[in-house]
Amino acid sequence: MIDMIEKEDAVISEEEAAQYDRQIRLWGLDAQKRLRGSRVLLVGLGGLGAEVAKNLILAGVKALTLLDHEQVSEESCRAQFLVPVTAQGQNRAQASLERAQNLNPMVEVHADTNRVEDKPDDFFLQFDTVCLTGCSRDLMLRVDQLCSQHNIKVFCGDVYGYYGYMFCNLGKEHNYVEEKPKLVKPTSDSGDGPEAKKAKVDPNETTMVKKTSTFCSLKDALEVDWTSEKAKAGLKKTPVDYFLLHVMLKFRTDKGRDPDPQSFAEDSQLLRQIRDDVLEALSVSGDLLNDDFISYCFSEMSPVCAVMGGVLGQEVVKDNFYHKEYGSLPKRCSSS
């Protein structure tokens, strides 16, 4: 695990102060220094991974490792702006390295072309934050469990056509601060009556309130017992995207890939069958997810990658602002 002293003592040079001037004005020098001491692992350099990489590099983390064993394909060139169109057949992480580094020479950007599944547990422990995109369910469960045991923050995300999701596990006790309007107590000469004795909100001042939130593991998020009374009561408030995620992860597990537009008819039929099997296994109604979803979950759509990459990158940055003592506002799991 990285020595936390290095994170707290990260020094901002004059050149960096000029580079990050607008950001420092927005969130302060101390936040930028904490961010500058963060080491992040990003797995998966598809369209979503490229967006996250861009956002983290421009924000100014200390080091970003791009891990991907896949090769650049014609499909990935459409959604992934870090790889040149001439790079087809090359490793995606290596092909993305030059453009990624050029975004911000002050960030240490590294490419790792090995399979993430082959990485030993110790490999993940050298990072402050691990962000997984385009990964299998089994791998995400393994990494989430491992990192939770060592207080390493975990983020997961994916884009399927017009759909996208993000999950984060910031620990069982995640401390953060929330900015709230400051209440002004009435003075002794404010008059009589109940209204005069009430505390009033000062619109010109705010106060920071320390809070603690508990985040569930990815295993708990995915393995909900929908036959329990508590789960049944919350079913109506659960987005159908949650069940769509189960279908897409099952497709990836069974086929070793995502739905391919080149085999639309075949994969559409397979998606229907997986949908029926998944909903039955979860003990929920088969009407929760109608056939319309099939037409909208093929390929990575660049605009969706941009939106999801912005959300995912923002949450990673916010968490590294307030390492240990403070943290970002809690978001257990989101999908869109």
UniProtKB/TrEMBL annotation:
<comment type="pathway">
    <text>Protein modification; protein sumoylation.</text>
</comment>
<dbReference type="InterPro" id="IPR000011">
    <property type="entry name" value="UBQ/SUMO-activ_enz_E1-like"/>
</dbReference>
<comment type="subunit">
    <text>Heterodimer of SAE1 and UBA2/SAE2. The heterodimer corresponds to the two domains that are encoded on a single polypeptide chain in ubiquitin-activating enzyme E1. Interacts with UBE2I.</text>
</comment>
<dbReference type="InterPro" id="IPR045886">
    <property type="entry name" value="ThiF/MoeB/HesA"/>
</dbReference>
<dbReference type="GO" id="GO:0016925">
    <property type="term" value="P:protein sumoylation"/>
</dbReference>
<keyword id="KW-0833">Ubl conjugation pathway</keyword>
<dbReference type="GO" id="GO:0005737">
    <property type="term" value="C:cytoplasm"/>
</dbReference>
<keyword id="KW-0436">Ligase</keyword>
<comment type="similarity">
    <text>Belongs to the ubiquitin-activating E1 family.</text>
</comment>
<dbReference type="InterPro" id="IPR035985">
    <property type="entry name" value="Ubiquitin-activating_enz"/>
</dbReference>
<protein>
    <recommendedName>
        <fullName>SUMO-activating enzyme subunit 1</fullName>
    </recommendedName>
</protein>
<keyword id="KW-0539">Nucleus</keyword>
<dbReference type="GO" id="GO:0031510">
    <property type="term" value="C:SUMO activating enzyme complex"/>
</dbReference>
<feature type="domain" description="THIF-type NAD/FAD binding fold">
    <location>
        <begin position="20"/>
        <end position="318"/>
    </location>
</feature>
<dbReference type="Pfam" id="PF00899">
    <property type="entry name" value="ThiF"/>
</dbReference>
<dbReference type="InterPro" id="IPR000594">
    <property type="entry name" value="ThiF_NAD_FAD-bd"/>
</dbReference>
<dbReference type="GO" id="GO:0019948">
    <property type="term" value="F:SUMO activating enzyme activity"/>
</dbReference>
